[in-house]
Every structure is written in C-alpha cells, then in structure tokens.
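Example 3.2
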Amino acid sequence: MRENLAHVFQEQAERFFVSQVDSYAIMQLDSSKVTPFEPFSSLRLLEKYGLKPNAEHYNIVYTDALPEYQNIHVFLESTYSRFNMDRPEDFKGHSLSVSDIVAIRQAGVVSCYYCDSVGFQKLDMVLEPQNYLKAAEMSVEDDYSMLDGVINNGKAPQLEETPSMLGQLKEKAEACKDTPSPKKPKSKER
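Structure, written as tokens:
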C-alpha cells in the first residue's frame, strides 16, 4: 500500500510542477521522514525545539488548478474547510490539519503557507521539483555512467578485457596437463 501511495504522491508532485496553469497543492508530512515534534505542531512549538518546516519531510498529496480569489487568507480558509468537510474523491491524505502546507504556484513562483493552530502563516520555503526521471532511470539503466535523462540508452562501450596473470597461469597449467612430461632417467639402486 505504501508503494502505491508513494507513486500517487510522485504523480501529484509532477502535476504540480509541470502544470500549464496556476495551481495549488496540499502537502502533508511523510511519517517515515519526520521528527517526533513535527506532526500537528504549531510554528511556535517547532521554533521552541529549534525546528522549522522542512520540505523534504512532506509529500504532495493533492494538487488542482488554482481558482481565482481576491484575498489569499480567504482562499486558504476556504481550502481548509473544503479539505475537512467536503474532501475531493481523489484526495489521498488526512483532513487538513496543523503542520500541513498549502503551496500555491502562480506564474511559476511557489509560495508556501503553513496551517498553524490559528490560520495560515507564510513560510520562507523553497520548493523545487525533484528529478523524478533520474530515479526512474536509475532503476532501469544498464550503466550508471549513462544517467543523462534518456532511459536505458544502452551499455557503455566495453574496454578490451586483458586476462589476469592468474588466468594466464591456469591456462598454461591446463595446456601442460595434456602434454606428456619428460621421463627422468632411472637412478641406479644400491
């Protein structure tokens, strides 16, 4: 089940970053990457422990086209209500809660808003697309020196293999087995 969700999260992230229209994404903590203090913690509590939200600890669990809005705070609050009371069928996360992030991508610029204990706080967080092709390529590529964005473009040219010294000696020993060894002259017995 976890593998299937990882695939869904990867697809959501790809959709968010390559969308031709402005979009938003819901980001929720990945339970395998978080510290004990992160889930459902306010920004104030995180700061108390010397922490801040880390984009690498989150999965993008949902993305959609960004609707027109007049006020960012009204949009964020309506998003909070929607993902708690009338969640979309394709939403794979839990109800929107404290520690979740709403990322908004407008004209290629991403802004992140932390769902705090009261309202949302804008974060100074940089979100960049990961190189998902590299991960896929590494799983099928014959030669890791060929990681170039083209999946399985063949093996690298092989260098001529020179036999090892041990191999050469074994070959000589095999060849010598078949040839009769010279007879030693018999010594006189006393």
